[in-house]
Amino acid sequence: MPAKYKVKSFEQNGVYHIFNRGVDKRNIFLDDKDYKVFLYILKMYLLSEEDAQKGSNPFLEDSTLQKGRFHGEVELLAFCLMPNHFHLLLRQTGNEGISEFMRGLLTNYVMYFNKRHARVGSLFQGTYKAAPVTTDEQLLHVSRYIHLNPKDLSIKASAYDYSSLYDYLGKRETNWLMTDFILNMLSSDGKKAYRDYFNFMASGKSDFKMIIGDIAID
């Protein structure tokens, strides 16, 4: 992918669309467990250290994972995991964090994936790509773009397990996902915000890719 997706430094309170594909566009998630492990690593990094220590580790026997490491430094606003790529919408709330967050996330996942599937070498297509989101309008439409990805699989977006759309529609509450940052742009009333986001998703605005421009994946 072109150099336009390379962010040299991440700014405090900046929001970024971060994504990557499998090398040669190969699948990076082969079954339900693969998706769940990726989400588990996200969860362990984003929860507070105290909350992250609760419960057992069902996935990673050997890991460099440092629980709660990025709590207060990085917020996850939205996500979607597809068979051969992923989308994350991240906000850097501290002075730094996203670079180390992504390094830890992908290193741990590749170690798990290669061990489980008896393979060696790179899993992802080079370094992850990052594009800054600079306006509220872009932010809303990037979240919609991310949540609509399952349509490429001929799956109804609101019925897809591996995205944050359930949380944005009030059907699930994930305590390591910060939906309020976007939903509060629609309404301060939680139930109304869920309805408004549903209507926004269903609006089908044809020019949304023009609004988000280079923030979309090529």
Summarize the structure.
InterPro entries: Transposase_17, Transposase_17_sf. The protein is an alpha+beta fold and 218 residues long.
Would you mind describing this structure in some detail?
This protein is α+β, with helices and mostly antiparallel strands and 218 residues long. The chain has one domain: 2-Layer Sandwich (Alpha-Beta Plaits). It is 35% helix and 14% strand. The protein has a four-stranded antiparallel β-sheet. A hairpin with a 2-residue loop joins strand 2 and strand 3 (85-92). Helix 1 packs antiparallel against helix 3. The longest helix has 19 residues, at 98-116. It is globular, with a radius of gyration of 17 Å. The termini are close together. The mean pLDDT is 89. Residues 11-149 form the Transposase IS200-like domain.
Question: Could you give the topology of this structure?
Answer:
Elements: E1 14-21, H1 32-46, H2 49-52, E2 74-82, E3 85-92, H3 98-116, E4 129-133, H4 136-147, H5 165-168, H6 180-183, H7 190-202, H8 208-212
Antiparallel strand pairs: 1-3, 1-4, 2-3
Helix pairs in contact: 1-3
Instruction: Report strand %.
Output: 5-15%
Total helices: the number is 8
Runs in which pLDDT lies below 50 for 5 or more consecutive residues are none
Total number of distinct structural domains: 1
Distance between the termini: 7 Å
- CATH homologous superfamily placement: Transposase IS200-like
Q: Tell me the name of the CATH class.
A: Alpha Beta
